[in-house]
Amino acid sequence: MLELKGVSKSFGGLHVLRDVNLSVPEGSIFGLIGPNGAGKTTVFNLITGLLAPTAGSIEFQGTSLLGQRPHRITRSGVARTFQNIRLFKEMTLLENVVVGAYRHMNYGIAGLLLSLPGYREQERRARERALELLTWMRLEHKANDLADNLSYGEQRRLEIARALATEPKLLLLDEPVAGMNTGERAELMREIIAIRERGYTILMIEHDMRFVMGLCEQIAVLNFGKIIACGGPDAIRSNEEVIEAYLGREDEDDMETTGAQA
To answer: Which residues, in sequence order, are bridge partners of residue 20?
Structure first.
C-alpha cells in the first residue's frame, strides 16, 4: 500500500534520513521504532507532505505523493495523529470528529449560508459518523463534553477518532500510547486491532516495546536515519544490531523501560 524507495532528507548539512526503503502491506499493522532523533517523525512528515524528501520516492497505492500538498494527501486516503496532541480543546468531542469529516462534504457556500437541504443532510450524516467513531474509541458517552476536559489518554483516542473521520485507507499513529497507563494501553491495543479488522492499514511509531511487539506483524528499526532491520517481532528481538542500538540487553521484562528511555 505504501512504499518508500531510497528516501533521504537533509537539512543543510544535517542528514536526518539516509536511503530509507520501506514497504507497508495493505491490511497490516506495521511498526516503526528507534531511538529518539532517529528520524521516525520525519518519515511521517514526508509521507503526509509536511516536508519534501531530498531524494527518493514515496508512493501510496501506486501513486506518487511527491509534490502533493498535505490536504491532497489526506484526500487520497492518508491520515495521521501527532506526537503532540492537536485537538480543538474548546470544542466538544463530537465537533472535533465532525471537523475530520468535512473533506467529504460538498454543499457549497450557498448551501451553508442558506442552510439548504443538501447541507443539512450532509451535516446529519457527518454527526452520525462522528458518533459511530467515538463509539469505536469508547468515548460516545462524552460526545458533548469539551475536549479540554478529557484525560490525556482519552485525548489520544479522540485524536484517532478524528483521523478516522477523514475516511483514510492508511492511518499513521505517532506514539499512540504515550502518557497512558497499563489498562489504557491494553484497551487501545484491542481498539487498534478492531480498526484493522474494519479494513484499515496502520503504520505506527511507538516507544512502548511490549505494545509494539504485541501488536505489529512487521517492524522496521531506524537508527541515525537508516533502516537497520525489518521483520517480525521475533526477528527484531533477536537482531544483534537492534539490541545494541535500541533494545539493550536487559531481560525481556525490561523491554518497555529500555524503549522508553532510548
So the answer is: 7
Quick check: helix, strand or coil at residue 189? Answer: helix
How far is it, in rounded angstroms, from Cα 248 to Cα 228?
15
Residue with cell 517492524: 219
Identify the bridge partners of residue 222 per DSSP, sorted by sequence position: 227
Residues 179 and 197 in one domain: yes
* Residue 83, domain member (yes or no): no
Contact 253, 68 (CB under 8 A): no
Measured between alpha carbons, how far is residue 108 from residues 71, 102, 105, 166 in Å? 18, 12, 9, 19
CB 129 within 8 A of CB 162: no
Residues 43 and 100 in one domain: no
Residue with more model confidence, 7 or 109: 7
Residue 98 forms part of a structural domain: yes
> Does residue 105 sit in helix, strand or coil?
coil
Say which DSSP state 148 is in.
Answer: G
pLDDT value of position 85: 84
Q: What is the pTM of this model?
A: 0.85
Q: Is residue 150 located within the same domain as residue 176?
A: no
Residue 113 within any structural domain of the chain: yes
**Lowest mean pLDDT, pick from 39-43, 72-76, 105-109, 231-235:** 105-109
Q: Which three cell numbers stand for residue 237?
A: 528481538
